[in-house]
Amino acid sequence: MDFKQLRYFVAVYEEGHVGRAAERLSISQPALSQQIRHLEQNLDVSLFERSSKRLLPTLAAHTLYNHALPLLDGLQRAREALGNFKGQALRTLAIGVLQTVHSSLVPQMLERVRKAQPHLVVQIYELTGLEIERRLLNGSLDIGISYLPTRQPGLHGVMLYEDELTLVIPADHPLREFKKVSMSQAAELPMLLLGEEFQLRQIWQTQLANLGRRPQVQAELNNMAGILDSLPHTRLATVLPGRSQKALGSHELLWKPLTEPRVPLKVGLVCRDVQRQQASLALLQTLLEEVLNGPDDRLKGSSTMA
């Protein structure tokens, strides 16, 4: 028994006449009668009682009909769904990305998505962590790339990699000879930081609060690239994910690991409905792991500080 025979059977059952069913299916009557006989032989049951005017379905036919309809409907829905992968329809995927991870992940991810799913339209939004979570909850985003754990209930995270909070200073800064800087030392430094709405700033403030300290904020910018452009012209410091050095580092800046304690940053994929986004999560996780573990990537899926 196959789907073609089921479709033929349903037509005969509903029409009650081989001639009308054959016309509906655009095949010849002998061919249709032969298919029904083969189906009866395969199932070892009689499906119709033949009379001079019409075919009368047996109890077995009623049973088969009730099972055949959802099977044929499921096959049609599967074909429609697969149309997304055959260019018959376009699908969009809205992704919210933290500014502090955007520059190192998104460019390479986009090209890999294009090759893997050429009919998928990816919409990227650079947002703060709180805005990513808000949009995931209201349904305007499908997936976020953010720090874990999530802060809003109802959201689920999938770990991608670990980074570390790193001190960034101008090349002529007084701490230029230090190989690493303790949190206590960093707490004394005047800083140029991202605004308080940024999750990275909140992480930094929490770490200092654990030491009974407050950040020495001299200036704020809401753009990470702007901070890095400004630092060489100041004696200020900032804190950023160590991974940012790969994309944004320059000879005018020095990146110093923070210690005592070190501050790990967990970056992951975040969504509201894991079951609904399962295919997209699996695709992005696979492609981002390729980016993280590429031969030119220094992290190899975890943090390595310069």
Automatic annotation (TrEMBL):
Domain of life: Bacteria
Domain annotation HTH lysR-type: ranges: 1-58
Taxonomic classification: Bacteria, Pseudomonadati, Pseudomonadota, Gammaproteobacteria, Pseudomonadales
CDD domains: PBP2_LTTR_substrate (cd05466)
InterPro entries, per the entry: LysR_HTH_N, LysR_subst-bd, WH-like_DNA-bd_sf, WH_DNA-bd_sf
Transmembrane segments annotated in the record for this chain: none
Sequence similarity: Belongs to the LysR transcriptional regulatory family.
PANTHER family xref list: HTH-TYPE TRANSCRIPTIONAL REGULATOR CYNR, TRANSCRIPTIONAL DUAL REGULATOR HCAR-RELATED
Protein name as it appears in the record: LysR family transcriptional regulator
Keywords, comma-separated and alphabetical: DNA-binding, Transcription, Transcription regulation
Organism field: Pseudomonas frederiksbergensis
